[in-house]
Amino acid sequence: MKIRYFLSLFLFYATYKHTTNIVKCDAYSDLAATTALSTVIRDPLSMSLKDLYDHGVKVPITDIINKLKKAVRYKKILRWSRIWWVLLVREIVGNNKVEEATECILRDIWDQCTISIYNNTLYSVESKPILFLHGILNECKNSFSTKLRHDPGLIVSKIDQILKSQIYRFWVSEPYLKLGRSNTFYANITQKNVPLLPKECTLKHLSSYMEEKLKSMESKKNIESGKYEFDVDSESAPNDAYTEYEDDQSEEILNDQLFEDQETDANGA
Fold first, then answer.
1. Where is this region: Disordered (predicted)?
2. What is the rounded CA–CA span in Å between residue 148 and residue 210?
């Protein structure tokens, strides 16, 4: 493919150089013919040459330079970043498979955010890994929200939940610190050599735990509310019975007194 680019570039350049700028007729320049020649041949050739140069020479060389920069200057921070990227992907998709092409595009954005944070931070990643991780997550959330018009995987919201819950603190635990301080090249860090997080340290577990907690609080509140109503009813029931008992006793006493008064009147007569 690159050989075809170079051959096409050479042929276009040769044709371009052998095309005169001014058309002459009997020692006089022909403006109309010169304009037509420029419009029909020179301008399309110059545009084709520029495109061929950009895609066949400039872009490949720029890619090589960027890869060399990554491999030399940013290899340390990218090693840590790739560990965190693997953990982020696991939080988003779980055990499901990921499209390699899509992951490659998203990972490039993640790498750009990593390099941006690295170039604007004075600390070394070994001394403040959690500071770098928080900065990368923030930067990446903003970048994804700008570049992803459609976010069916809810990547931005997942990153936001990770930041708010601060569950990313588990990403700098001992197994990941050990891998980050190793000499493993960042391109070799994959799902296979990054240890799994314990289930209780994942966002899924935290969400289910909070859901269960809310349910238990709600049920407890309902039970307490029902108990309170029952207590009110149980207290009022004995009071009502006691009141009725007092009324019965009063009536009996009054009847006895009335009966005694009637007997006294009868004896007096």
1. 228-248
2. 29
Are 167 and 203 in contact by the 8 Å Cβ rule? The answer is yes
For 238-266, letters b (16+ CB in 10 Å) and e give: eeeeeeeeeeeeeeeeeeeeeeeeeeeee
- The whole-model pTM stands at 0.60
Greatest Cα pair distance, the chain, in angstroms, is 172
Query: pLDDT, tens digit, for every residue of 67-78?
Result: 787 777 888 899
CA–CA distance, 99 with 113 (Å, rounded to integer):
21
What is the rounded CA–CA span in Å between residue 119 and residue 173?
A: 24
Backbone angles phi, psi at 25, to 5 degrees: -135, 110
Model confidence pLDDT, tens digit, residues 98-156: 888 888 999 999 999 999 999 988 888 888 999 999 999 999 999 998 888 777 668 89
